[in-house]
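Workshop exercise sheet. Pairs work together: one partner reads the sequence aloud, the other fills in the structure field after running the prediction. Swap roles for the next sheet.
Pair: D.N. / O.F.
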Amino acid sequence: MSRRLLIALLAAGALLMIFPFVWTVVTSITAGGDVLTTPRLIPQRAGLDGYRKLFEALPFWRIAANSLVLAVVSTALLLITSSTAAYAFARLEFPGKNIVFVGYLATLMIPMQVLVVPLFIEVRALDLVDTYAALIVPTIASAFGVFLLRQSVAVLPRELDEAAFVDGAGHIRIFLRIILPLIRPALATYGLFAFMSSWNAFLWPLVAIRSREFMTLPLGLSTLSGQYSTQWNAIMAGSVVSIVPMLVLYAFAQRHIVQSVANAGLK
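Structure field:
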């Protein structure tokens, strides 16, 4: 394959991936009546009417703050629980370790839709419905995170641990001072995935939340869809605003993510 053909294919793929984002921005600045009648990449009547409708229809900053707090706290707890469990499965020896790990991974095959009802019953029994705890507690552990980080810990030479043990270090010090710095790319990658999952969560907040006080961003945007009419420019304006934190986070984590991908090909 020639270099020019390869560049053309990559450019075409990049355009296909970026087009939905461009269309979202264009729709957000298109006048409400023109969104469905004359959709085009360069709107005839451009303006910020969609953003005005967004802030008038919703307590947007409160909703965005709810999503941000939920995503930050959930991501931090997931990184703590997943990294500690990954170290235990990769470095510690205890009876039934492999069986427990396989059983833990088997939970990945259970879809969230199946867990919603029993999870709601449990949250209601604990009197946590319509609280921040109802959104955070079910997200503090992840089998995928444990699997991803365990693989990163498992490939590290055990000689590092043995040398630290000779110097008098214990498991906690080895985990904090040796393991965590070495798996930083994997932590950044999983942290980005966890933040995206929490930021975009819709199904569980829809079930667990009743009041607008605890409403998250996806729930708030869904209220803009009416039975007979939908404010598409306002919805797209909210989508544009909701994309910004993800772009900022990816910009900070990009170096570690690239390094994680590069390390995946090394033995």
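Discussion prompt: The two ends are 29 Å apart (CA to CA). What would you look at next?
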